[in-house]
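pasting for the record
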Amino acid sequence: MDRLEAGADELRDRVDTTVAHPARRYNYWLGGKDNFAADRESADRIAAAWPSAPIAARENRRFLRRATTFLASEAGIRQFLDIGTGLPTASNTHEIAQAIAPETRVVYVDNDPMVMVHARALLTSAPEGRTAYIESDLREPEKILTHPDLLATLDLSRPVGLMLVAVLHFIPGHGAAAPVVARLLDALPSGSYLVASNATKDFLPEPVAAVYDRMLATGQTDIWPRDRTEFGALFQGLDVVEPGVVAVNEWRTEAEEGPRPASADVSVYGAVARLP
């Protein structure tokens, strides 16, 4: 029996297949098969109002890859805390970083037990490095920071790459993400980096933005958009890496193959910044 089969009984008891989950919906948009009818129905409702949602998911993933490459190759980061990691797919954070520096250590965090079963079974570290997986919620940063597996894997006295990619928009409310990000950054030393992205309506035509507002108000979507001012405030006091706060499809894309999507088809801000 392999590790995925061993986790099947645990999943049957713990995963509610009737309720959509962001990680499984994201998996569906990326073309994966680890999702259920509720996830697909939720994803299709969002895509009906915002047809480019799958494009945004793919561009978010590409942003993660480019940012991880930058941190590992140019910034010399050898430790990563990836919160809201989602289901394993091609080019995961530790794979990208360990291809550059095999000794890299990565802690993944997600609140979906299905993610954890797949991660533990499929994500294996290079022998020189290490990976760990924590089932926890971004909205409870203290539990993440004090988790024994995190403390056994990462040295919080040395720089860490904090990855909050396509996860902050699941914290609803204006200003609600700021204290969570601040608490996580408070635990990290100078020389650490924040990588973050968040959905926005800034690039959407007014009729599309109005539909989005109605879906948010009626609970048809759980993706809370933030404008450039609110998202940019998360990086206050940090040294923001060029090109600054931009749509993720515009962040260091020189090596990406064309044609590139328009920002209105992605509608996600992203940025990378260093703790001074």
